[in-house]
TrEMBL record:
Transmembrane segments: none annotated. GO terms for biological process: ribosomal small subunit assembly; translation. SUPFAM superfamilies: YhbC-like, N-terminal domain. Residues 85-157 form the Ribosome maturation factor RimP C-terminal domain. HAMAP family: RimP. It comes from Xanthocytophaga agilis. Keywords: Cytoplasm, Ribosome biogenesis. InterPro entries: Ribosome_maturation_RimP (IPR003728), RimP_C (IPR028998), RimP_N (IPR028989), RimP_N_sf (IPR035956). This is Ribosome maturation factor RimP. Belongs to the RimP family. Signal peptide: none annotated. Residues 11-82 form the Ribosome maturation factor RimP N-terminal domain. It is found in: Cytoplasm. It comes from the Bacteria.
Length: 158
């Protein structure tokens, strides 16, 4: 745990003047051969070349500090399509896309993301008309970010 926080601080310091940010840092495996997984994102996404550059810099810093003297595996990547949105900062770039939101109370909602602020997300949700069950209508819904357990961007292949 101590190593995770230290590595997170190293990377956050490195990225402080950039449009990129740390989503997650995870150290797993055995103490003799740990695996360090760093997930990064950017306000407009992040490319493989940027991940590679950051990986080289982080690797150099870990080596200089002697964090893992017996060796380690380092993986730096962007969040995969199957990964939930973990930070408020990840939402704005997905405005206009479909999201599926799993709330802490067990309810799942889905709609087109319209707006985000530090406290809420707003989306257009399609609901069934109570009078005419065959007819659906769009309703603007707002959900507090604190009420969200997980949120996923839905990919459309249309």
């Amino acid at each position: 745990m101590k190593d995770q926080e230290h590595i997170r601080q190293l990377v956050e310091t490195q990225l402080s003047e950039s449009p990129y940010f740390v989503v997650d840092v995870y150290v797993s495996g055995s103490r003799t051969t740990p695996k360090v997984t760093i997930t990064l994102d950017g306000d407009n996404g992040i490319g493989i070349d940027t991940c590679a550059d950051i990986s080289r810099d982080v690797d150099k810093r870990i080596e200089e500090e002697g964090l893992f003297p017996k060796g380690y595996v380092l993986e730096v990547s962007s969040p995969g399509i199957d990964q939930p949105l973990k930070l408020v900062r990840q939402y704005p770039k997905h405005i206009g896309r479909q999201v599926r939101i799993h709330l802490k109370d067990g309810v799942t909602r889905e709609g087109k993301l319209e707006a985000v602020d530090n406290e809420n997300i707003t989306f257009q949700e399609e609901i069934v008309n109570k009078a005419n069950k065959k007819k659906k209508e769009l309703v603007t819904a707002t959900v507090a970010i604190l009420d969200i357990d997980k949120a996923f961007v839905l990919v459309s292949f249309k």
